[in-house]
Amino acid sequence: MADRGRVVTGLGDVDPASSVVCVGFFDGVHRGHQTIIRRAVRHAQGTGVRSVVVTFDRHPMEVVNPGSQPKLLMTLARRAATLASLDVDLVVVMPFDDDLRHLSPDAFVDHVLAGRLRAQHVIVGANFRFGHRAAGDVAVLNELGPQRGFTTEAVTLLEVEGAVVSSTEIRGAVERGDVERAARLLGRPHLVDGVVVRGDRRGVGLGFPTANVQTGRRVAIPERGVYAGAFHLSDGTLQPCATNVGVNPTFGGQDLRIEAYLLDWSGDLYGMGAAVDFRHRLRDELTFDGADALVEQMHADVAEARRLLGAHASGESRPRS
What we know:
Elements: E1 6-9, E2 19-23, H1 31-47, E3 50-56, H2 60-64, H3 76-84, E4 90-94, H4 98-101, H5 105-113, E5 119-125, H6 138-148, E6 151-155, E7 159-160, E8 163-164, H7 167-176, H8 179-186, E9 190-197, H9 202-206, E10 211-214, E11 225-232, E12 238-246, E13 257-262, E14 273-284, H10 291-309
Parallel strand pairs: 1-4, 2-3, 2-5, 3-4, 5-6
Antiparallel strand pairs: 7-8, 9-10, 9-14, 10-13, 11-12, 11-14, 12-13
């Protein structure tokens, strides 16, 4: 379909057409979310209509109870792009404002599902809630749907390793530093987006220059420690890296930083958009007696990162940032 992979904000630019629709915030676009969305895509393809994912530009709690919203597994841009990559025809990002917040379940259905989207079939997770004060649920969709021309399908929540896959569960794993578990639930490594900024340049003097990635305030960042993963360059290529999340206690630091040492790479990254993923936790952040002890440990960290990531290079080429 012409719309395939298109991302729009709001419903104003959406052409009225029959759709299979799935709705949710979809933070992380984890394996459970993917199950729902792929079911919608299959159903749409089988019936010859378009598949649509409806998501929101901010966590509802940011509007309902500001300050209580959780840290997020993805930026909005990353979430929209990831949703679009799942072969859906259209991703609609709804601004979650006071007007949307106060819509009754009936009004939400009329405004979001039955209007321009002309939903024929709506697919949601079994725990989906919507409308003012979260008064709507799957039972309400089943009641309202026939009056608006759509059927409803509730997808049983996916379980992995004895636990329901949820954004909350994944956030907890990330914040504990259990990035391996987070990756199993997400279906890919946890990724943090940001911009490369200038740091103290202390790493240059130690022989391990790093790219310092500045993120947003509400981003879910792994527990302080050292990790092996990949640095996602702006051209789409990935470079293996060893990343420190911490405050540099050996040098009396206080500000939390994400500092990635790219293995076997050279270039200037300052000011560029960047992303770091986290695949293995190597160790806790430690305080060393001095620079020599720290450098010795950093050599060991890089060697372990190489082993875990399968990176085989000389280590002579390093980033200048």
